[in-house]
């Protein structure tokens, strides 16, 4: 059974930026790209636990603000040569409202 939960409006997430919401067991970073696509990742870099929501967003990636590890927003995996991954969450937009699958 799918449990989609309304988390915010699309306008609440800055383009090429992020917003953090509380998940069941962790903080979830919602990222918005230049084309208004939304991605949801555990707000924790796999390298040293830095807040990915405070990183630089661009080209389908976010760069951790602590040590520069780059994470692919779609897959939640580090971009080579780095290694590691963070949990990703399903997200959808309906009539300007962002929903998270939990």
Write up what this structure looks like:
By secondary structure, the protein is an all-beta fold. The chain is 0% helix and 42% strand. The protein contains no helices and 10 strands. It has strands at residues 4-9, 17-22, 27-32, 38-42, 56-58, 61-63, 70-72, 88-89, 91-94, 97-101. The strands form 3 sheets. It has a 4-stranded antiparallel sheet with strand order 2-3-4-8, with no helix packed on it. A 3-stranded antiparallel sheet has the order 1-10-9, with no helix packed on it. A 3-stranded antiparallel sheet has the order 5-6-7, with no helix packed on it. It is globular and about 40 Å long. The model has no long low-confidence stretch (mean pLDDT 94).
Topology record:
Layout: E1 4-9, E2 17-22, E3 27-32, E4 38-42, E5 56-58, E6 61-63, E7 70-72, E8 88-89, E9 91-94, E10 97-101
